[in-house]
Design brief:
CATH topology of the largest domain: AhpD-like
CATH architecture of the largest domain: Up-down Bundle
Radius of gyration: 14 Å
Number of domains: 2
Helix content: over 70%
Strand content: under 5%
Number of helices: 6
Largest sheet: none
Number of strands: 0
Distance between the termini: 28 Å
Shape: globular
């Protein structure tokens, strides 16, 4: 069964239908992903790893793409996913070997 909405389409719909939730979430995302003590790139690598541990395919795809756009290499992204595999075991490895590799290819990394 395919999804009715892409992640972006669904987010747009939620922004329209639930601005009281999505506006603060967007503000949090904006603040949490800025360069501060940790670079935005490092934070995106962390987000890739957490997405793998949570087994969120849409999150993996979005954060891999964003990490590549911030200059993360394929090797850096895969190294970050190694930590996810350590922390989450076989299910994380399954997502890295399928979703992450596909997202890297799609992102041109």
């Amino acid at each position: 069964m395919s999804a009715k909405y892409s992640l972006e389409e669904g987010k747009t719909a939620l922004i329209e239908e639930m601005p009281y939730i999505m506006d603060p979430f967007g503000a949090l995302m904006e603040q949490a992903t800025q360069d501060r003590l940790l670079s935005a790139k490092t934070k995106r690598l962390m987000m890739v790893a957490v997405s793998v541990t949570q087994r969120c395919e849409q999150c993996i795809r979005a954060h891999v793409k964003a990490a590549v756009e911030l200059g993360a290499s394929r090797a850096e992204i895969l190294e970050a996913t190694g930590v996810a595999i350590l922390m989450a075991g076989g299910p994380a490895m399954a997502h890295v070997s399928t979703v992450v590799l596909e997202a890297l290819d799609q992102a041109g990394a």
